[in-house]
């Protein structure tokens, strides 16, 4: 297992202009899967994007983790090329609210997609035979899916989220593996954030960090990597993730 210090020293610089993804695509569990990292990797991660789908900022994060951890990282396209469009936000009309609500109860249903993550993992375990252990991380919507996938009897060894969406105390209570949670300044009510934090901090294996200057989505599709502060905190967030995912 590589040490955290070694992994951190190997982090690639973040690209702020048009990003060319390093990976390729395959298919698992009936989904198109973005794959990045060495075929000979002994550890793997499943990356769950946010509600805006597979965008360059999200792929770059997967590429950074794959490179720094010498891991294989798989990002399934749960929405099959049809995520919720940016034009739907802010959801300031009844039409936009209905579209977002319909999307969350259909394509983005949490329980359905949690089951799909498990299906992808089961197939990946057969395809990537050199991988001895797996982790999972999710952004916003994907963070809740990742948390649900890490309850009792999970095959994942470690998990986490950045700018989590739809926080629920009971989700945190059910997590059974080391978990990292990176909060922005706007991931839910202060009461919900505090409840979630208190539950996670009961275990010394968990990590909770708050990025008080960052907007929801700063490590995913809403990352503005030409903004100096966002770039710095994007890099810091993925650096922090290495500290826990290095133990996959």
Describe the protein in words.
This protein has helices at residues 4-9, 56-69, 94-105, 110-127, 141-148, 169-174, 190-200, 228-245, and strands spanning 24-28, 31-36, 43-48, 72-76, 133-139, 156-162, 179-183, 207-210. It has an 8-stranded mixed β-sheet, with helices on both faces. It is of the alpha/beta class. Helix 2 crosses helix 8 and helix 4 crosses helix 5. The model is unreliable at 1-10 (pLDDT under 50). Strand 6 (156-162), helix 6 and strand 7 (179-183) form a beta-alpha-beta unit. The chain contains 8 helices and 8 strands, in the order H-E-E-E-H-E-H-H-E-H-E-H-E-H-E-H. Helices cover 38% and strands 18% of the residues. The radius of gyration is 17 Å and the shape is globular. The longest helix has 18 residues, at 110-127.
Features:
alpha/beta, 248 residues, 8-stranded mixed sheet, 8 helices
Give a short overview.
The chain is built from eight helices and eight strands, in the order αβββαβααβαβαβαβα. The chain is of the alpha/beta class and 248 residues long. It has an eight-stranded mixed β-sheet, sandwiched between helices.
Strand content: 15-25%
Helix content: 25-40%
- The sequence of SSEs as H and E is HEEEHEHHEHEHEHEH
| Rg, Å, rounded | 17 Å
Tell me the strand order in the biggest sheet. Answer: 1-2-4-3-5-6-7-8
The total count of strands amounts to 8
Structural class: alpha/beta
Average predicted confidence as pLDDT: 92
Uncertain runs with pLDDT below 50, 5 residues or more? 1-10
Q: If helices are DSSP runs of H or I spanning 4 or more residues, what is the number of helices?
A: 8
Question: Largest sheet at a glance?
Answer: 8 strands, mixed
Q: In angstroms, what separates the terminal alpha carbons?
A: 9 Å
Shape: globular
